[in-house]
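> tool_call: predict_assembly(chains=two)
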Amino acid sequence: MEHSAPDGVTRSPWWRTAVVYQVYLRSFADADGDGIGDLAGLRSRLDHLADLGVDGIWLNPCYPSPQVDHGYDVADYTGIDPVYGDLAEFDELVAAAHRRGLAVLMDLVPNHCSTEHPWFREALAAGPGSAERERFLFRDGKGERGELPPNNWQSCFGGPAWTRVTEPDGSPGQWYLNFFDSTQADFNWRHPDVVALFDEVLRFWFDRGVDGFRIDVAHGLVKHPALPDWHGTGYNTLGWDRPEVHEIHRRWRRITESYAPERELTLVGEVWVPTVEALAAYLRPDELPQAFFFDLLEQPWHAVAWRGSIDRAFTEIGATGATITWTLASHDVHRAVTRYGIVRPEELPEGVDPNVERIRPKGDVDTVLGERRARAAALVLLALPGSQYLYQGEELGLPEVSDLPEHARQDPGWIRTGGADPGRDGCRVPLPWTAEAPSFGFSPPAAAEPWLPQPEWFAKYAVSEQLGDANSTLELHRAALRLRRGIPGFTGDEFRWMDAPRDVLFFARGGDVACALNFGGESFPLPPGAEVLLSSAPVREGHLPADTAVWLRMEMMTKGGG
Amino acid sequence: MMSTRRRSIAAALAALLATLLVMLLAPAGSLGAPDSDSPALERSRANDHQVRAWSKDAVIYEVNVRQYTEEGTFEAFAEHLPRLEELGVDILWFMPIHPIGEENRKGTLGSYYSVRDYRGVNPEFGTKEDFGDLVEQAKDRGFKVMMDFVPNHTAWDHPWVAENPDWYMQDEAGEIVHPPGTDWTDVAQVDWDNRELRAALIDAMRYWVREFDIDGYRVDFVGGVPDDFSRQARKALDRIKPVFMLAEDEQKTHLLKRDYHANYAWWLFHTMTQVAGGEASAGDVREYVDWMQDTYPKGGYPMTFTSNHDENSWNGTTRELFGEAEHTMAVLTFALPGMPLIYSGQEAGLDHRLEFFEKDEISWDDLSMQDFYEQLVDLKKGNEALWNGIDGGPAEFLPASDPDTLAFQREKGDNRVVVVMNLSGEASSSTVRAADAAGYYEDYFAGEPFQLGAEHSFELDAWEYRVLVR
């Protein structure tokens, strides 16, 4: 997607190479002292993000919501939840961000809404067979008295994907489909009202200055029309990744493009599909501009696995012409420091989705090793062609908080599986800004306790402790982002693997810059004449040690030779 | 690959240069959209069905003709065919049999991988007729025959170098270069952007299939070959007959969707050497298998090996690499998903690193390993669970109390195989949670009945393995 700038020169829109920082609003910064992060808190900390050097922010949902799934249960798509602020506060945030050159992306949650959404309340009140129920997936149950769910589909949070309602007359009634929590009712995307609602939602926020959306479960939305039982193993292709969903993405792309050329808006899909080839289908030129490339996030710490994954990205996604959107972290996966620091993996109990083992693994963690590897990984991601999403706290090298007490747990995924799935609370603990307890600068003095308890060891990861310390993970990110902006080679399309031992990932980018990561084993002698621009750990005598990455400026030779 | 993997600083520098040069010429990223359900793709699928029919339980054997016999000829090699038939291997993969370049040759006889004429036969080995006779004899005995194709570079005295210098990569001074990033100074790097060059290579590949009824190719250095060339080659060959394609590559797993059937399990090989050296354990083997099973496209699988011409000549004999764990690792390559490889002489306990550029004959005096490999081939063929790709079952790991214990099962239809190994040089006791896999088996190597309990305690000696079948 290129368009002509006013000077007539064709250039890429900003988002193709942008580094976007994911703000988990609830845990970023609390201005009003209720122990929950908010828009005013975010606005007060925007300089942290501007100084970090990112190009934009993506906010997890901040719409009015009962907050059962922390905002992914939306009760009103065009408002702001009072716990986070109001529309005026939101407008101020967008203006303040734009003044700093930061784009603002919101989170679109189109697969389902909260059961507190007016449409769902109307559907409940209107009863079986009503037009109001058509906007959702209400069905009669199976069994003699309709006491069994309409089909055998499973919720992503564990258990059946159906919830039975009590009809207005007090009798046990129909069931509605909910692929997530029972308070999140799946929309009927074959209904024109639903289609129209989201057209309006997109325009509402675009008109307010929002620069794009991350789209929650963009591979969901449409289900098989007959809602039959799923008898296959693994990925339920009757409920997910339906061919019809692509038409919705085409529709949204057209809406987005209708703001061009004045506005460069983007849509970033959260698409969980079994193969990269299937992912690429969402990135066809008239569909989503971007989708997260989760394949890399799922790879073990091994050079072959990483090289293979990066090759898949270029081969499958490169063929569509779309930019690749790299990420190693989000509010849904265990933090990279922890994933890469697991020295003895633990088996998850039987029955847990095998994907959980890859994105939320358990085991004994060496956080020093994990942080060393996560730092190295960060340099690789920032050197790859495309866009990158950083998750808040990643720039601080935060590990997962894996020992949260049971009573503090909030993630419905943890609760519905009785803790068999380690859940996502551990990557959502409020950020440490300073080393001082009680809230490490997250809340103002004398505030309520943070909504998730922060461990004491958070102090050493605090922003204040890392600023100015050249060896800190925060300063590494700041330096990397600064360099990345200043060196065109890092933001161009050129990419080529360089010959290297099997444990080393080594690639050249445009101009004369290159990146290498040594996954282990022997130290790797850097090419003679290469200047080290940045390294994730000290490089000694021209050798790259294990679990270390480096950015290089290669000596350009004028004479060739074989 | 054709020569030592050790790299000099100068070579690395040259690599860098040439790489940067290539980068300027051909920005990566878009390699052409994959074609949809074209007739060619349909043909590929139909052909794959036929190839699967004969490769589903196949074991591959790598033939090094020069070192195989005193004479080092096709004719002399042919005398081993009855023994190889007894061994039970299915596919004979011949290392390149073409005339070897003389210009910048390494050593006296040179590397097979420096090809001077893709349509000729190395006079060391005999004539084209001799090769034809050998292929015929092999086929009469039921073998499939694969050749080794080296598309990325040619000998410096390949006629193309003089006739079509623009088919080769050149530096700024207009000099043809050797493959960037390597010390393969005995060969010239082709220019992959040249269509005529590509067509000439594919013509050569077609030639041997058409004229000698070759059943497939092992393609050298696929990491350096553009993906769309692999596609072109496969399409062209499919028009003649169904072929089996093996990629010398590990990371481009997407190529296993259509263009190749198998690639190399280097990761497993290196993990096994580390395990033998006490630097890795069962969990590392599992990490590899999990990755492979998650990543490989449906139907694709790796070739598993404890040796091959590169590892033997440049890294060490199986004895050097695995020590006392040699047998255990061989069992692993036959029991894990993939097509196992036996390299020339492994069945005779090949005890030295074969010279690569000189004559260095394999001794067949001691065939004591022949029986062991025959047993492994029988194990594989007799148990559907261990067959290749989707014709076999995936490996499912069983929890064990000792971290050095590797336990897994594979299942297909009524057949189930359970493997328990002590991957350490010390005796261990370990409880394996067999759960649903519990039941009555035959201990394959002991030839005795074995009752596996749901929570089974194993007392295992150093590197001991148990293979249970039913």
